[in-house]
Specification:
Helix content of chain A: under 10%
Largest sheet of chain B: 6 strands, mixed
Number of strands of chain A: 11
Distance between the termini of chain B: 41 Å
Order of helices and strands of chain B: EEEEEEEEEEE
Oligomer: heterodimer
Radius of gyration of chain A: 13 Å
Number of strands of chain B: 11
Distance between the termini of chain A: 37 Å
Strand content of chain A: over 45%
Structural class of chain B: mainly beta
Chain lengths: 112, 109
């Protein structure tokens, strides 16, 4: 079966712009989580959605937001980009929160 | 919140050698997974192992939940095993992964 698909793979944006990243989970998976990976902070949890509801949110500013659609696809948005937002953004899906997660290949965002 | 430590931070092996990676966590967990991050950034799920022992080919893992640690064993290492290995846990009543800092493994030919 198809894995977790993230688009785009690479993105270059200018400070102050906004960006939207997309994640299509494995078919049948209703939980989608987003993580940010940077060299300095490692892998940090952004938020988790289950059946279109945000159930949990990490310690990130309000510029980071997300949503989940009825088909379980998820998007995350970062507004007013800062240089420090440059990172690998990873999406993971799972049938439920108490089960193994599968990660996508990630979107590498560079803010210049 | 829960703390996750991994050791060693870096490991250099000759091809064919065996290795043990350790993950310590500070509180009870209901989910623990080991991941391998490949050079392109993708996290590959190796084991879902909140407790017990599992084996998959040259890799095996053991989690002793009562003592709050997990071990990942790699036998007869190959150059393709190189990369960063992460331990990630979900604490009881939690809903998201907390990742350890990772172990960077380099397998030399």
């Amino acid at each position: 079966k198809a894995g977790v698909t993230q688009t785009p793979r690479y993105l270059i944006k200018t400070r102050g712009q906004q960006v939207t990243l997309s994640c299509s989970p494995i078919s049948g998976h209703r939980s989608v989580s987003w993580y940010q990976q940077t060299p300095g902070q490692g892998l940090q949890f952004l938020f988790e959605y289950f059946s279109e509801t945000q159930r949990n949110k990490g310690n990130f500013p309000g510029r980071f937001s997300g949503r989940q659609f009825s088909n379980s696809r998820s998007e995350m948005n970062v507004s007013t980009l800062e240089l420090g937002d440059s990172a690998l953004y990873l999406c993971a899906s799972s049938p439920t929160v108490y089960y193994g997660y599968t990660f996508g290949s990630g979107t590498r965002l560079t803010v210049v | 919140g829960i703390q996750v430590e991994q050791s060693p931070p870096d490991l250099i092996l000759q091809e064919g050698a065996n290795s043990t990676l350790r993950c310590n966590f500070s509180d009870s967990v209901n989910n623990l997974q080991w991941f391998h991050q490949n050079p392109w950034g993708q996290l590959i799920n190796l084991f879902y192992i909140p407790s017990g022992t599992k084996q998959n080919g040259r890799l095996s893992a053991t989690t002793v939940a009562t003592e709050r640690y997990s071990l990942l064993y790699i036998s007869s290492s190959q150059t393709t095993d190189s990369g960063v290995y992460f331990c990630a846990v979900v604490e009881d009543y939690g809903q998201n992964f907390v990742f350890g800092p990772g172990t960077r493994l380099s397998v030399l030919p």
